Amino acid sequence: MGKIWNWKLKMIKRAIIQDIEVEYEVIHRKVKYARLEIKTDKIRLIIPLNYNEDEEIIKKHEKWIYNKISRIKASQKEADNKELNFVMTTEEFKDMVISSVEKFSMILGVAVNKVFFKKMKTRWGSCSSRRNVNINMYLMHLPAHLIEYVVFHEIAHLVEMGHNKRFWKIIEQKYPDYKEIEDELLIYWLLIRKLIDGEGKLKI
């Protein structure tokens, strides 16, 4: 059997979208379809190896990119006025999460297999097809109502795995103001990321 090469070519480009200049990373991979991602304020465009029309994709999604970047920039300013919680202990945090998992799994009528606590740099939590729930340890530095929301969000994925209309309907039944909560989570995420990436003072 010959070698299988996982080609991945990267380049950095810039574009002007309305009144802001954005920098985006173009990544060529062995993928079938192009994919646009925005993590905090970093834009990544993943495209097939033989595809070079990255500027067309950026142009097509200008409005979406502008709205996302504008929201992130506004959230970055809000993050300067927020403070993280360094009072809650690891044990208190885990007890709170487990209690919330038990409560919300009963409300939604689902069974959770196991709960894992991990330090994650890309998400607050996740849920697997094996009915395992993963919770980000950095979440312990957030207000209690946001911790409970994230737990409910992940338990809701045991009912509907995708972020589709059905999923958000489930969220809305418990949290009618979920869009505002998602905005608040973004603000705290930027604050957490700043400490992890910049000062390196956030330790658990």
Provide structural commentary:
The protein is α/β, with parallel strands linked by helices and 204 residues long. It folds into 2 domains: 72 residues, no CATH class; 110 residues, 2-Layer Sandwich (Zincin-like), CATH 3.30.2010.10. The chain is built from 6 helices and 7 strands. The strands form 2 sheets. It has a 4-stranded mixed beta sheet. Helix 2 crosses helix 6 and helix 3 packs across helix 4. The N and C termini lie far apart (45 Å).
Kindly summarize this structure in a few lines.
The protein is α/β, with parallel strands linked by helices. 44% of the residues lie in helices and 22% in strands. The chain has helices at residues 54-60, 62-79, 90-108, 144-156, 165-174, 178-199; strands at residues 8-17, 20-29, 35-39, 42-48, 114-118, 125-127, 132-136.
